[in-house]
Design brief:
The complex is a heterodimer. By secondary structure, chain A is α+β, with helices and mostly antiparallel strands. Chain A contains nine helices and ten strands. Chain A has a domain of 118 residues. Classes of the chains: A alpha+beta, B alpha+beta.
């Protein structure tokens, strides 16, 4: 699996669309093709931001083994779906079903929601880099403005939470304060936002695009500056707007990735 | 609720969830200690600041996020809401059936606050059966049991619906027949009695809610009659007791006490304000130091105020906030005094002032009062009051309920039961005796028989009280009934 230029591709499956058509007609669908489809299906899914990583210290413990267990274990039956077929001969007998456990009819919409969630967990199993890329994809979609299926007003609390969950640890590290002392709000007006110290509390307001263009790119804090906006980007370099301290006007910096870290390459 | 208000409340909850997630909580799955996000979500949903769906969505997202960090993705799926899930677990899933370990854990997961259990109760197929109560007020002496001890059943009232019938009873050991009798038994007197009606039909009478064998002075219980006496029955003979004695209960009795209402309750503010007032009642009834689900009530009340004010559901200067802070100060809690200092006592509700003045009283009359009163329907529920037993430190009120199940004493700490609906209308119970002393319910016991509830009232009745007014409030309305305290022969011991 390869993610580049905002897209996930399966290198060994050049004709994903064709394989999806075959799968719809009853053919087998490879896991890779399924993941490409899932990525597209979740490209605007706010659950990605609700469940995904918030900071370098925040690690999801999702492995492919866990995903397989999830697909075949008790949760599968709770979802109203039958368990996996029995193993070939010589394997352990299937666990007898408790007779008093009633057959619960899970509503179809809940089954669909759970299937979608299981699909998302499978995407998380691709690893941290893909988790960040997907988070950035979702944030970029929601920062593009309203569209069919994208109710910004209804999503505002979730977007504020997503922003706060990622900005607070970064800003706290920038100033050496407790993340709980960072108050975050969504900036929806022109401009990059604002950041000011109010007693012992840092109040920051930034737009949703900060998640996509700054956080997901991996440079919220560079050279002692809080990066608040991206002016130009051409891998491995970028021109950014960054704050040296709260309340100060932002400076324009050139930053560069050296294979391990982002660092300031120049000003202006 | 206004869209802006709901958005502000949801934002508060999501920001709280982010802060909690940073602490890397380990949610151990089904358990009795609700997490911070769950408590806040319940407070906001109960106050009407959030819809149930939104509240649960935030909690589910939080729990799923925690689960993914613990390497257990299953809750990420099963925490999604099951619409139409029944309000309570089906009988076949009760833990007493001793399921295997894995099913037990799944059941616990489903039955706990970890599960999407906030589904509204299924609507009843029709109005609840109206219970009717008849006072009895007689004592049935019982034959001597082991070691010469003999007991007595004080029959308070007969209550019944179309399908259920029970006689409320206060029972005790009255004495011993011979000097060589052993120590008083620790269990309640148990002598099998029955009933027969005017047509010769016989009824089984089973004693319920006898509690544990702890050697107490009195047991508050009831005799469940099977079958329920049909309409048209003129009388029942209850017995036989000692020397074959029976007590006759006339079923057709005029001039029963009928409650008033339901009438509009006095305006008492927003749902959030009412929530704080209920919290104050709980503090007075159970004490700030009472621990439920890992929290003291004082801590829980502090969190409740924080959640309601910082989410915007209630202004920090709302009178409800002020009086709860004032109450807390008087109970030795520090909930934060307003800038201008003390909260005047006069701003506290009369109930609270009375409780503060008499909360430590130990002067209640000791005796049993037989009465019956049928309350009008309130919020879809109906009640009959069926007698009371008074002690020096409190009183036990018998109630037959139809169309209502108590939420228990843990609503404040648990945020209501995991399988109940925070927005479901709940009823509050208060009483005021004729001497002006107010009483709150400190506990409810509803045992094994549907409908019969024993409510513990505190502080004790005033020694000079001759009647009690019982007030049920819910949904902006009140139902009341005033019952006379007709003490059984011998009168109350003061």
């Amino acid at each position: 699996m390869r993610w580049a230029d905002g897209e996930l591709t399966a290198a060994d499956h050049p004709d994903v669309d064709g394989e999806l058509v075959l799968a719809a007609l009853g053919g087998d669908k490879s896991e890779c093709v399924a993941l490409v489809g899932a990525w597209s299906a979740h490209a605007e899914d706010l659950d990605v931001l609700a469940l995904g990583p918030r900071s370098p210290a925040d690690q999801l413990a999702v492995t492919w083994d866990l995903v397989e267990n999830l697909r075949s274990g008790p949760a599968q039956r709770l979802m109203g779906q039958p368990g996996p077929p029995g193993r070939p001969g010589g394997a352990q007998p299937a666990r007898p079903r408790p007779r008093s456990l009633p057959m619960r009819q899970v509503p179809a919409d809940v089954r669909r929601a759970q299937a979608r969630r299981a699909e998302l967990v499978g995407l998380f199993a691709l690893g941290r880099d893909f988790q960040l890329a997907l988070s950035g994809t979702v944030a970029a979609a929601w920062s593009a403005g309203p569209a069919p299926g994208r109710d910004l007003a209804a999503a505002r609390p979730a977007l504020t939470g997503a922003l706060a969950g990622r900005l607070a640890p970064a800003a706290a590290g920038w100033l050496g304060i407790d993340p709980d002392a960072v108050r975050v709000s969504l900036h929806e007006a022109p401009g990059w936002g604002a950041a000011a110290l109010d007693g012992g509390t840092l109040r920051v307001t930034l737009p949703v695009r900060w998640l996509a263009s700054v956080w997901a790119a991996g440079f919220p804090v560079v050279g002692g500056h809080l990066v608040v906006d991206v002016l130009e980007a051409a891998w491995p370099r970028a021109r950014v707007r960054a704050l040296p301290r709260p309340g100060a006007p932002p400076a324009v910096l050139s930053i560069r990735y050296d294979g391990e870290h982002w660092s300031v390459a120049g000003t202006g | 609720m206004a869209a802006d208000g709901a958005g502000q409340a949801e934002t508060y909850l999501r920001l709280l969830a982010e802060a909690e997630l940073r602490r890397a909580p380990v949610l151990h799955g089904p358990g009795s200690q609700p997490h911070r996000v769950s408590l806040a979500a319940t407070a906001l949903a109960s106050a009407g600041a959030l819809t149930l769906d939104t509240a649960w969505q935030v909690v589910a997202d939080f729990q799923a996020a925690c689960a993914l960090r613990q390497g257990d993705p299953a809750p990420a799926l099963t925490s999604l809401r099951f619409r139409g899930w029944p309000a309570g677990p089906p009988a076949s899933l009760t833990l007493s059936s001793g399921p295997p370990a894995i099913r037990h854990s799944v059941i616990q997961f489903l039955a706990s606050s970890y599960r999407p259990g906030w589904a509204r109760p299924t609507a009843a197929s029709g109005p609840p059966a109206a219970p009717a109560a008849i006072p009895i007020g007689a004592t049935l002496p019982l034959p001597a049991e082991r070691d010469g001890w003999y007991g007595e059943h004080h029959l308070l009232a007969l209550t019944r619906t179309g399908t259920e019938a029970a006689i409320t009873v206060a029972t005790r050991w009255a004495g011993q027949t011979r000097r060589s009798a052993g120590p008083r038994p620790r269990h309640a007197p148990f002598h099998q009695v029955g009933a027969v009606d005017d047509r010769g039909v016989r009824y089984q009478a089973a004693l319920w809610d006898m509690g544990i064998e702890d050697g107490r002075e009195w047991w508050d219980c009831h005799l469940a009659l099977t079958p329920a006496p049909p309409d048209g029955t003129r009388w029942l003979d209850i017995g036989p007791g000692a020397r074959g004695r029976c007590i006759r209960v006339e079923l057709a009795q005029p001039d029963l006490v009928t409650g008033a209402g339901p009438q509009p309750a006095a305006p008492d503010g927003s749902p959030a304000a009412r929530l704080l007032d209920r919290a104050g009642d709980e503090l007075l009834a159970r004490g700030p130091g009472r621990r439920v689900a890992g929290l003291t009530l004082a801590s829980r009340v502090g969190l409740l105020i924080t959640d309601l004010t910082e989410s915007g559901a209630l202004a920090a200067g709302d009178p409800a906030v002020g009086r709860l802070i004032g109450l807390g100060w008087r109970l030795g809690m520090d909930l934060g005094l307003p800038p201008d200092g003390r909260i005047p006592r006069a701003t506290l509700p009369e109930t609270w002032r009375s409780m503060l003045a008499c909360g430590d009283a130990g002067d209640g009359p000791v005796g049993v009062a037989a009465f019956a009163a049928n309350l009008p329907e309130i919020c879809g529920a109906r009640f009959s009051l069926a007698g009371l037993r008074s002690a020096s430190d409190g009183a036990t009120l018998h109630v037959m309920a139809s169309g209502w199940t108590p939420h228990g004493s843990g609503w404040l700490a648990h945020g209501l039961r995991s399988h109940s609906d925070p927005s479901h209308v709940t009823l509050t119970w208060q009483a005021r005796d004729s001497a002006g002393r107010w009483h709150l319910v400190t506990g409810m016991h509803w045992g094994s028989r549907e409908g019969m509830i024993q409510m513990q009232l505190a502080p004790p009745l005033h020694p000079g009280a001759t009647s009690v007014e019982v007030i049920v409030t819910g949904g902006g309305r009140q139902a009341r009934a005033t019952v006379p305290l007709c003490w059984l022969p011998g009168g109350p011991d003061r």
